[in-house]
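> Could you send the chorismate mutase prediction when you get a chance?

Sure thing. Input:
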Amino acid sequence: MRGIRGAITIEKDTKEEIVSSTKLLLEEMVKRNHVLPDDIASILITTTEDVKAAFPAQAARQIEGWQYVPLMCAREIPVPGSLPSCIRVMMLVNTDKAAAEIEHVFMRDAVKLRPDLVK
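Output:
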């Protein structure tokens, strides 16, 4: 089992933006890592305090075959000076890949979080 990290920022705290941005991120994470729905053990999604118009997990329910993927949403720790308007994902997947083979996905302003992992 491996963890795949992902993060994306939103411009506006609206349901549409939260869901569409989260869906974009999740789809990119599975695409880059060749993950099938049955490979996903669980997904933890966190948001900064300023993201509150919708549950980002709603996005996963729009993806074909993801109806049985366990999801949980939570709040990020509100550290002063941290990146605002951010949705973070920790996707646990069953895989034979080595840790160095996993491609973590950081989009929009979230590339600032882990520039060392951005490809």
